[in-house]
Amino acid sequence: MTIEGPDTGINLFAIGDIHGCLLPLEALLSKLPILWGVDYLIFLGDYIDRGPDSRKVLELIIELKKSYPERVFPLKGNHEWLFERYLIGLDVNVFLYNGGASTLRDYLEDRDLKIPQEHVNFIKSLPLFLETSSYIFVHAGLHPEKPLALQTEEDLLWIRQRFYYYPGKFPKKVVFGHTPFPEVLHLEDRVGLDTGCVYGGKLSAIRLPDEELFQIECRRR
Q: How do 135-138 and 173-176 pair as beta strands?
């Protein structure tokens, strides 16, 4: 997916991995100096699993997307990918091992699993990346030896060291999540925004192009 970038003079805000941490997300959104309906808001994936409020996080993001369909862009993370596969009976144990049980508990009603079709459709519809004139937003990163058109789901959702330790330079700044760092990884051509909120770190956002950071301290779950 491609949109016009910050060369238009409009700010872009990107938010790192949330993992069911609703209260920090609400606090961060209230802290962002975003002009709703004008600025862009990009979520980098991993809205669910491990934290206490995965369902409510999804509901909040779905409502934001409904309210500002041309300005709010949630991307797919590897945890949404695992959830999607779980729903069709694939990689069940992998999903559960990676924190999926906490998500399923949010959808239990009288001991029955009831997942709204709207949530299923939302998960399925999430794009793998967003490109602007100056940036690429993606969950995990890019395979450094492939053009964007040839990147696979595995590259975009799961890559780690091969991407962020890459000694070369990417043609556009890559804003990503997936790998938790103690602080925002801020390189010339790479910005890592997963600061481990669900592990007691921070929930982080960045405003582009001025690169101001916004953060909320999180309690360990």
A: parallel
End-to-end CA distance of the chain: 34
Q: Is the pTM for the entire model greater than 0.85?
A: yes
* pLDDT tens digits along 48-106: 999 999 999 999 999 999 999 999 999 999 999 999 999 999 999 999 999 999 999 99
Task: State the catalytic residues.
Answer: 79
User: Domains in the chain, please, with CATH?
Assistant: 12-146+180-217 (3.60.21.10)
Confidence of residue 7 (pLDDT cuts 50, 70, 90): very low
Mean pLDDT (the chain) is: 95
User: Burial letters for 198-214: b for 16+ Cβ neighbours within 10 Å, e otherwise?
Assistant: beebbbbbbbbbeeeeb
